Amino acid sequence: MSSQEPPRRATIADVAREAGVATSTASVVFSGKAKVADATRERVLAAAADLGYAGPDPRAASLRLGRSGIVAVVFEGHLRNAFLDPVTTAMMDGLADGLAELSAGILLMRDEPGEDGPGLASAPVDAYVLIGWSGRTRESVEVVRGRGLPVVVIEGDPGDGTIPRIALDNADASAEVAQHVYDLGHRDVALITLTLGHDRERAPITPERLAAATVGVTVDRLEGMRRVFPDAPAISASGSFIDEGIVIGRMLLADAATRPTAVLAQSDLLAVGVIRAAQELGLRVPEDVSVAGFDGIAIDGLGGQSLTTTVQPAVEKGRAAGEQIARMLGGEAGETQNLTCVFRPGTTTGVPPR
Amino acid sequence: MSSQEPPRRATIADVAREAGVATSTASVVFSGKAKVADATRERVLAAAADLGYAGPDPRAASLRLGRSGIVAVVFEGHLRNAFLDPVTTAMMDGLADGLAELSAGILLMRDEPGEDGPGLASAPVDAYVLIGWSGRTRESVEVVRGRGLPVVVIEGDPGDGTIPRIALDNADASAEVAQHVYDLGHRDVALITLTLGHDRERAPITPERLAAATVGVTVDRLEGMRRVFPDAPAISASGSFIDEGIVIGRMLLADAATRPTAVLAQSDLLAVGVIRAAQELGLRVPEDVSVAGFDGIAIDGLGGQSLTTTVQPAVEKGRAAGEQIARMLGGEAGETQNLTCVFRPGTTTGVPPR
DNA sequence: TTGTAGGCGTTATCAC
DNA sequence: GTGATAACGCCTACAA
């Protein structure tokens, strides 16, 4: 008595037929968008159960409705960063919050320069949040704008001014940290920056490299630092990791003759690495060398010390983006938000050694 | 000369008409699935540019193709956990990896018991990964299975055995840690578990509560611990955080008369919290009290100590799930994977005080 | 290589 | 309260 396995899943039309009602009626039973007689509803539900119908196909619904309930969050490079960098995870946390009222899902996407695959434009999403620390974002912006969907850029360069963005006072905040160190008396300072561009090269920063830099955050923070220390040598890190800070810290601190009295890093992770390197070399912080960071993330492992840094509103950044997306999907215009960092003096900076 | 703003976006049919070709031709130009004369392609592209057509609408394409290129990752409770818990972030990292070959996007979703909103079933996805530490997952499984899409469960109870799952040897690994502590001579041991159920209650574990527990991981790890210490008192944490460990640590260690000689925690974060609490109370670890954890995540801030724990393959868990999804989308059957933890002795456990 | 036609599964509109 | 019908925008046999 066994028949062929049904070749396709039941559709709402099948359910309607089985229940002896119109498809529109069956549809309404599932969407609840109109009143249906109890008896009718029962029959439809029974038919659905019978046929193993699990409710409307979201793909069809999203075509019909023009909405998918999904917001894309676009990272450049590997998605690892989305989960491994504490500033980013905090931001995502805030974004999830800001998006909560939409009960929209968050689609993680990457925008890798090399690949041409399906790409950003092929995802059925209702809006885009571009997380961009690089000029790459500019290009993505064009791709995405063409779709006519809401876009918000977090710390990226949106090209023209028509796209709302969530920005940070990177330059000012960096200058404030630098000024603190200057005021302590330091004049011989080394700077460690985030990556300059997609190459992620660890190398001294030259005017040429700086001119070719594509990561706005890095450039802005460096600009702030150089307001106070115009001639300080700078080196770009290959990424924001403690280990990278250790490597660069060793380079900077190993030779007593060329050792700076203070190191300013563009991230807390790098700063912590430098402190580790100093400890390795038997140097005391801040007696022998002062170290300051940027971000204000919670870092354990400083042995009771607190890092001098500036605290960026990472969670707030995400929440603000989410809120703007929600506004734009509601038909209002999105607004650019300028968020500010708060300087937080710690115990890792002090007067320079005599 | 200004005309009304066009009421709707251009479609591929508009482009085809404008270019003077058939829609199928225009479609092929964008999909690249067939050869098109260069001249024709040019004309189509020009027409598209003219009309501001940014390529096929993914919503329509996914209906037509039956695929959206999206894999849903379902968490129970707040998405915060996806970003703030180190074990989970590592797992997500692995998942992104395992899914990379599909070049599928990852849709973060939550499955909150309370809410009935759009819900899991309303997302246009091709497959589901259920991250479940609770019995809640069981229910989600049913919802999702009805869709007839591939499903993989990570550390959850899949109900019947037909769903591939990624599992850990939680009981055995816990027993191994416990045995290590037993072998050191400890007999007076306190246990700290993860949450027992959705209530997230911090409270002593009674047989009744244990019987009602829904989080399989917690139950399994406790079972392993009790193989070695059948009568050890246990308390459930409200979550896996350092701060929670501190709170519970204070409770357990404050009174010298009732203080255990060792504390076994079901997560490293809880264990670190206990160590902090011990330090606060002026107790030395491991001289006055031994502490062990579970997970093997990298934790700074132990002041040079290394936590005795068991290392779970968090990244591998995610990667395995991604690979199974990829297989299933390829038409093959998914397979359950049993992963194992590796015991890692550290310096936070030692012989009990006399 | 290009054109035609049908349908993917749903929901909104509008009569009844 | 219920039913018929027309899109939503695209892709892909199939025919020319």
UniProtKB/TrEMBL annotation, chains A, B:
The keyword Transcription regulation applies. Pfam families: LacI, Peripla_BP_3. CDD domains: HTH_LacI, PBP1_LacI-like. InterPro entries: HTH_LacI (IPR000843), LacI/GalR-like_sensor (IPR046335), Lambda_DNA-bd_dom_sf (IPR010982), Peripla_BP_I (IPR028082). PROSITE patterns: HTH_LACI_2 (PS50932). It comes from Microbacterium galbinum. Transmembrane segments: none annotated. GO terms for molecular function: DNA binding. Keywords: DNA-binding, Transcription, Transcription regulation. This is LacI family DNA-binding transcriptional regulator. Residues 10-65 form the HTH lacI-type domain.
